[in-house]
Amino acid sequence: MFTVGIDLGGTNIVSAVVNDKYEIVATSKTATNSPRSYREIFDDIIRITLDAIEKAGLTADDIDSVGLGTPGTVNGDGIIEFANNLGFNNVPARQILIDGLGIHNVYVENDANCAALGEAYAGVGHGAKNFVAVTLGTGVGSGIIADGKIVNGVNFAGGECGHMVIVLDGEQCTCGRKGCWEAYASATALINQTKKAMEENPDSVMHELARQEGKVSGKTSFDAMRRGDIAGIHVVERYIKYVSCGLINIVNALQPEIICVGGGICNEGDTLIKPLRRYVQAERYSIHSKIQTKIVKAELGNDAGVIGAAILGKVKE
Q: Which of 142, 196, 140 is nearest to 173 (CA)?
């Protein structure tokens, strides 16, 4: 059995043919070139999907289902109701793909949910039925899998853990609220925290590191910490506490088997993951339970979304 997963991103569109072992057997890719009309974007999606199928030595008749992961809110009819970074409003994605590909089994889902699905079934989750994926990037993305199914909520916009408030009347978030987890735990937030610490500590080694790299990045404070810089140590320690606060909230609310953490910050590996585990272990509500939520690093990287999209037919049928 072969399925197709499509990952529609703000920069690139990737289409992949995936086998029943969740292995990618062929891919095709193109630039998103946003902003432009959804018709132009979907013409490219159809083109590269057919190209990926051909590269795999298959035809549309060999494809069991097609899944599309997209930014924004997707309703039960496969309509992208709103995706602000692509300029989409009520785009009939499922029907466009059915008409363009000649394949009836088409599913459309939010991209963060697809990434969670990919990690849960084909990645670090190893088939876990209760699983949460968190991505620390420009924002804090998340997807929730409960009893093997994606949690969408009544309005198909569920699973937005990044917008739970952890500091009342705290830092302004791009969503309009103040004090969201995203405003403290995203890579963007870490960079802002680093810049503030640099302003307050002109002798910090972070200034030298930023000059060498040509910018302040998510690595700056971690690299400074490893060199024993006090300001860098304080930034990292506080940032890890912010990340752990949200993870503990997720554990207490959902009790998943696994939470996987992804994004560029996770290149820090155990420097990040081990203290997160300690904080969660110390502050979780279920302190006496024999089975505890595992905190692990995501393993599929950029392939999580496209593999998860290819799995949509399995969980939505």
A: 140
CA nearest neighbour of 52 among 36, 67, 40: 67
pLDDT at 275: 96
Complete edge-to-edge strand list for the sheet that includes strand 140-146: 149-150, 140-146, 131-136, 258-262, 294-297
DSSP assignment of 12-75, as one string? EEEEEEEETTS-EEEEEEEE---SS-HHHHHHHHHHHHHHHHHHTT--GGGEEEEEEEESSEE-
pTM above 0.85, yes or no: yes
Contact 307, 27 (CB under 8 A): no
Three-state SS string over 261-313 comes to EECHHHHHCHHHHHHHHHHHHHHCCCCCCCCCCEEEECCCCCHHHHHHHHHHH
Cβ contact 242:189 at 8 Å:
yes
Task: Please determine, for residue 316, whether its predicted confidence score (pLDDT) is greater than 90.
Answer: no
User: In whole angstroms, what is the distance from residue 45 CA to residue 43 CA?
Assistant: 5
How many other CB atoms are found less than 10 A from the CB of residue 305? 32
Name 27's Cβ contacts closer than 8 Å, sequence gap at least 6: 14, 15, 16, 17, 52, 55, 306
pLDDT tens per residue across span 30-46: 999 888 999 999 999 99
Residue 245 CA neighbour count, 13 Å, CB half? 20
- Cis peptide before 35, with omega less than 30 degrees from 0? yes
* Residue 52 identity (one-letter amino acid): A
Q: Please report the pLDDT score of residue 29 as a whole number.
A: 96
